[in-house]
Amino acid sequence: MTVSITCADANEAERIAELLVTQKLAACVQSTPLRATYVWQGKVETADEIGLTIKTLRDKLPALEAAVKAAHSYEVPELIATRIEWASADYEQWLRDALKP
């Protein structure tokens, strides 16, 4: 699975990424600066954010969601999971090994 979230700034993104990897909720977290335009409380807003792409397994999603919500500054953080259609066998094995307790 890949999970997409956005963070308010680089410090928050780094803190959440490290938390998820340390707790074995993510095998890898990639960050990308981005500009978001969205509706919040009836108004169109634009903000610079940091997007995180999180590599994980489906059974980790409930704990990952709880960890992100507890650590995030946003009232409603983005949490969107997408199934990986294909990955090389080596990468898939690395992902599973990285997330073993």
UniProtKB/TrEMBL annotation:
<dbReference type="InterPro" id="IPR015867">
    <property type="entry name" value="N-reg_PII/ATP_PRibTrfase_C"/>
</dbReference>
<dbReference type="Pfam" id="PF03091">
    <property type="entry name" value="CutA1"/>
</dbReference>
<dbReference type="GO" id="GO:0005507">
    <property type="term" value="F:copper ion binding"/>
</dbReference>
<dbReference type="GO" id="GO:0010038">
    <property type="term" value="P:response to metal ion"/>
</dbReference>
<comment type="similarity">
    <text>Belongs to the CutA family.</text>
</comment>
<protein>
    <submittedName>
        <fullName>Periplasmic divalent cation tolerance protein CutA</fullName>
    </submittedName>
</protein>
<dbReference type="InterPro" id="IPR011322">
    <property type="entry name" value="N-reg_PII-like_a/b"/>
</dbReference>
<dbReference type="InterPro" id="IPR004323">
    <property type="entry name" value="Ion_tolerance_CutA"/>
</dbReference>
